[in-house]
Amino acid sequence: MFLEIVGLDSESGLITGDFFLYGYNLVWGMLVIMVEEVSIAGLRAKKAARQTRVLAGIQSIVILLLLVVVAEEYDHNEYLQAWAGMHLGGFGFLLNGTLAAFYAGVLIAVHLNRPVPVVAGKVRRREEIPVAPEAR
């Protein structure tokens, strides 16, 4: 009546032997897929990925602020405008704020394109609301 395991096939994830005698062996494949193996190395890797993501976000904001400072300096410094016109040629227009605006747009697009974080245990399900036949 209880679980009697003869062996576990590691390639297919199937248990060989009698499994619950109630037909739960069909569910076992789904359970194996749904279970996530937790290890110290995996947790450290997730923590490192999270820290890297935060560091990349901070660096992106610092770069944006530096581009804004360069744009302000370009707008108020005639010598920088002359130097950019001489040395950068047709790309000098990027220093007047165009590059900062483009970079800000890319940052916003990347931020909005991120997947929504999943909160464990907080699943919202749509409930059916009974409606009287007269209201239809």
Keywords:
136 residues; mainly alpha; two-stranded antiparallel ribbon
Strand order of the largest sheet: 1-2
Q: How many domains? A: 2
Low-pLDDT sequence parts = 1-7
Mean pLDDT: 76
What percent strand? under 5%
The rounded distance between the terminal residues' Cα atoms is 52 Å
Tally of contiguous helical segments: 4
Whole-number radius of gyration? 29 Å
Number of strands: 2
Shape: elongated
What's the helical proportion of residues?
A: 40-55%
Order of helices and strands: EEHHHH
Instruction: Let me know the largest β-sheet.
Output: 2 strands, antiparallel
Structural class: mainly alpha
Topology:
Layout: E1 7-9, E2 14-16, H1 25-34, H2 40-76, H3 78-87, H4 98-112
Antiparallel strand pairs: 1-2
Can you give a write-up of this model?
- The protein is mainly alpha-helical.
- The chain has two domains: 1-35, no CATH class; 40-112.
- The chain has helices spanning 25-34, 40-76, 78-87, 98-112; strands at 7-9, 14-16.
- A hairpin with a 4-residue loop joins strand 1 (7-9) and strand 2.
- Helix 2 (40-76) runs antiparallel to helix 4 (98-112).
